[in-house]
Write a structure and sequence with these properties.
heterodimer; A: 144 residues; alpha/beta; four-stranded mixed sheet; 8 strands; globular; B: 154 residues; two-stranded antiparallel ribbon; 8 helices; 2 strands; 64% helix
């Protein structure tokens, strides 16, 4: 029986820049930063109040997994903003929006009332996008 | 200036005296001030003054945005920074004083309360983990990722 998701990926273009974005701007906590040879690290972060979920900031580089053509294709798609990486929740979306904006995070949509709650959309430093919502709007069926 | 109220069907609706966005910007500025000056002697009264709020109003708004009072938030930032310093092999005293605590006893007590173990035990545990990571880094990476990167041990 599967119980939880513990590790998932975010494909990033540059690990140093991703570290700065996720740790210094979004406020995620660094879990692992282990050198794995030249220019590559095992780099994982967790949302501040969710230590049992690690996001691997996975570099797109030519490797066993990504032949040159695949890596090039993936980099193009990430830059185009094709990949949505999920929904992040916060206590107060207006305060979070103002804080992230003050830190230079690029928003594609300001906090907007939708039928499911108030939502904003922002991009990470690579081009991946996230939905930001208030936690109150994300509680349906969680308490069954 | 006082809030203005409209009487509609026996319910008083309080209309904010300034647009909400300014309110949020002020609270966020106070939070960012704490983030940037946690190591200094911060006078939270001054932050409220600079934000043009009464102290009570400021604390209430800050808490509604961040779930903590400014004082609780400052303490949590200091302890979080101290954790980072201990992971970087700083001594307990160095960590304590560089994040703005004046007393080692206060620091150790608060650290234990928030983190669940004493600063020295936390530092020792991380030192041991760092040693293991440097000796056998692949033991800390799920093998599917190591395989994708071609990091498998020879």
């Amino acid at each position: 029986m599967i119980t939880k998701m513990t590790i998932t990926n975010i494909h990033v273009l540059d690990q140093d820049s991703a570290y700065d974005f996720y740790v210094n701007k979004l406020g995620f906590k660094l879990v692992d930063d282990i050198p794995m040879g030249p220019d590559t690290r095992w780099l994982t972060v967790s949302p501040p109040e969710q230590p049992d979920l690690q996001l691997v900031l996975f570099p797109v580089k030519v490797s066993k997994m990504f032949p040159q053509e695949t890596a090039d294709m993936l980099i193009t798609l990430i830059k185009q903003g094709v990949f949505g990486c999920g929904v992040l929740t916060c206590k107060d979306i207006f305060a979070t929006y103002e804080e992230l904006k003050a830190k230079g995070v690029e928003f594609m949509k300001p906090p907007t009332k939708e039928f499911y709650g108030t939502e904003a959309l922002f991009k990470d430093d690579s081009g991946n996008y996230f939905s930001l919502q208030t936690i109150d709007n994300f509680s349906h069926e969680n308490n069954i | 200036m006082s809030n203005t109220g409209k009487k509609i069907e026996d319910k008083t609706i309080v209309v904010p005296e300034y647009p909400r966005v300014y309110l949020y910007i002020r609270i966020v500025q106070a939070k960012l001030f704490i983030d940037n000056h946690y190591a200094d002697e911060i006078d939270l009264e001054n932050i409220a003054d600079e934000a043009y709020f009464s102290r009570f109003h400021f604390i209430r708004l800050f808490r509604s945005a961040y779930g903590k009072t400014p004082h609780q938030y400052l303490k949590s930032v200091r302890i979080e920074k101290a954790r980072q310093l201990l992971k970087e092999d700083k001594t307990v005293a160095e960590a304590c004083f560089s994040v703005g605590f004046q007393s080692l006893t206060t620091f150790s007590g608060l650290f234990k309360k928030i983190v669940g173990e004493s600063p020295s035990s936390y530092a020792a545990r991380h030192k041991e983990m760092k040693k293991q990571i440097s000796e056998k880094p692949l033991a800390f990476v799920p093998s599917c990722y190591a395989y994708q990167h071609g990091w498998l041990e020879k």
